[in-house]
Amino acid sequence: MKLFYAPQSPFARKVRAAAIELGLNQRIQLEYAEVVPGRPNSDYGQNRNPLRKIPALITDDGETIFDSTVICEYLDALAGGGILIPCDQSRRWRVLTNHALAQGMCESVILIRYETSLRPEPARWSV
């Protein structure tokens, strides 16, 4: 498998942590993908993730999976299932809800970072 990632991405770090927890990290080859606002990466968008976000995973079968939540669920299933995301319905929904909360928090942090470091100061929203 090949994981397209950037070390600064909390989403890519989440996938890498999941792979370690599941004992799959040795099966994943890492490939850096530059996905930065203002720097188009059309090759990545056309061939890996049309949303131009990281991470993206190429499976052993050559399929592309993107979105860290989907990749983590794929890795969990690959490791036998029910390890990271419980099969028991009540626990499953609690874990997935917490996962959505973590996703939203990461997205907010990234938006704040973009606002404070990439947007010209006179055009910034106050945070």
Task: Give an overview in words.
The protein has 127 residues and is of the alpha+beta class. It has a single domain, classed as 3-Layer(aba) Sandwich (Glutaredoxin), CATH 3.40.30.10. Helices cover 46% and strands 11% of the residues. A hairpin with a 5-residue loop joins strand 3 (56-58) and strand 4 (64-66). Helix 1 (10-21) packs parallel to helix 3.
What are the defining features of this structure?
single chain; 127 residues; alpha+beta; Glutaredoxin; 4-stranded mixed sheet; 4 helices
Helix/strand layout:
Elements: E1 2-5, H1 10-21, E2 29-32, H2 42-47, E3 56-58, E4 64-66, H3 68-78, H4 89-117
Parallel strand pairs: 1-2
Antiparallel strand pairs: 1-3, 3-4
Helix pairs in contact: 1-3
- What is the strand tally? 4
How many structural domains does the protein architecture include? 1
The CATH topology annotation reads as: Glutaredoxin
> Main beta sheet: strand number and arrangement?
4 strands, mixed
Radius of gyration: 16 Å
What structural category do the secondary elements indicate? alpha+beta
Number of helices: 4
Enumerate the strands of the largest sheet in spatial order, edge to edge or round the barrel.
2-1-3-4
Mean pLDDT equals 89
Per DSSP, what share of the residues sits in E-state strands of 2 or more residues? Answer: 5-15%
Between the first and last Cα atoms, what is the distance in angstroms?
A: 39 Å
> Can you tell me the overall shape?
globular
CATH superfamily: Glutaredoxin
Low-confidence stretches: none
Helix content: 40-55%
CATH class call: Alpha Beta
